[in-house]
Amino acid sequence: MNIEALLASMTPEIYERLRQAVETGKWPDGTPLNEDQKASSMQAVMLYQAKIEKSSEHMTVGESGEIVHKSKADFKRSLRDEQDDKNTIARFKQDDI
């Protein structure tokens, strides 16, 4: 399967299951991953993070396959921006009300 076909068929739910399997070493039903499954799953997770998710994590895989390290200031800024977006319900100007 080529990379584009793999990414096109991978839903966010599949990505989360693969990521969890790689992190825990087990499938959701508790069955352990063998080494080939772990390697394949890790590659799929890294591809998804690089091409689809474009993660704001401190260290990720960039679109061209390189490891991307954010500076501490950049990482803090991205977390602060994410929190502001998540905590904001609505914004109004004084004249809007």
TrEMBL record:
Record region (Disordered): 78-97
Domain of life, per lineage: Bacteria
InterPro entries recorded: DUF1315 (IPR009749)
Name assigned to this protein: DUF1315 family protein
Organism for this UniProt entry: Alteromonas portus
